[in-house]
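Standup notes
- HV: blocked on the assembly model, inputs below
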Amino acid sequence: MEKKTVKVSVVYYGMGNIRSVYNALKYVGAEVTVVDEPSKLKNLTMEKMVIPGVGAFEDGMKNLNIFKEKILEAIDLNIPILGICLGLQMFFEESEESPKVKGLGLIKGKVTKIKTNLKLPQIGWNKLKIKRGDCPLFKGLEDGYVYFVHSYHAEPLEDVVVATTDYGCEVTAAVWKNNVYGVQFHPEKSGRIGLKILKNFLEL
Amino acid sequence: MICKRIIPCLDCDLAVPEGRVVKGVEFKQIRYAGVPWQLAKKYYEDGADEIVFLDITASHERRETMVHIIEKTAENVFVPLTVGGGIRTVEDARKVFNVGADKVSINTAAIQNPDLVNQIAKYFGSQACVVAIDAKRRYVKSPKEAESRIVIKTSEGYCWFECSIYGGRKFTGVDAIRWAMEVEERGAGEILLTSMDRDGTVEGYDIPLTKAVSERVSIPVIASGGCGTIDHVYEVFKETQATAALAASIFHYGVYRVWEVKEYLAKKGVNVRLE
């Protein structure tokens, strides 16, 4: 049987580099479209949406806001959405990094600075502790190392944490609420485990 | 917790279209080891935690060749990629980030214009800013002889460490340990510390140098220069605060596979990433 490619839209809102996310999604078999304006986000034909991003919460939201309506519509249409790093953080209501700026508010809770005695940002390979083996992103995976670069993490007020990591304290590594998925680490830089997570997302 | 990293290093000669990986001895004699993107892919599949590309020609006209190498590599390799050699401006850095690099490593340009460290950290984040330090031992009879320097006691006698630039061709008089502390202040996210005395000798990392720097900064230090056996890697993690070990020839010439080194370290109780 011929393998069907999955149509993925990667939202590019000017924050950080999306080349590696693009490469990794392509590698695991996606047909990737990079979308740099809301009108190009085709909610009726797109099968998956990815919101990557590196940088400050305030700049991120400022740039992402024009996509907000389309993103909410995609969620209503039950299209799976994956937020990576800053992408995950913007799913929440607010962030300590920019207290006056509102997030997308898809998940209740806020993003806070990691309360650790260790050096921030956390940069490097850390062990993923899977809390919810039923989360489809982790199908076929066990705890393993993934690549993190961040100073802030999500503190949800809902029961959505599906994986954590230990950085002198418990850090939120992944969240899942209905068709909204978020990973704080960079699957596109996390070797085979990262690629498997992206592949699992495509297969949702 | 964050694990220790094993980083194969590709010294790239860009005189041919796809580039070629070379290995020098004490920054001089050259042997060829392969095509950069192919070796990078092999090391990634073998479990490398990161891959460093150094343009040893560091010539302006061949910068595009490095961009192509990284672009090709990033299509097949999904761990962080670091590019060094000849990066002199924020624009040079942006070019390699745009094709999939995650970090740039700067040495000569940073010594000549220390603000470049601040600029790269500001535009791309500390995690993207690696400062490479090529350090050479300068022996003195006693610490008093070099009072303005940080003098370290080694089994060969007292010495301070001098930074060199232009791939080891020029010495600067800059104290390498002090410079490491300064670049941390300026926002560097990591230090790639190469011992010029050990590079290419396969006699092991310079432990006193690595220890001295890694104890004085809180950013990660990558030990480099001199790795010839699996025990050298273990030694540098056991004896110093280095969080990563860089090696070239032991991987290029098939002495060890990356996964062999990591399995050995894991057995010895070092926290490494096994796939």
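- HV (later): unblocked. Chain A has a mean pLDDT of 94. Residues 6-202 of chain A form a domain with the Rossmann fold fold (CATH 3.40.50.880).
- Next: hand off to the docking folks.
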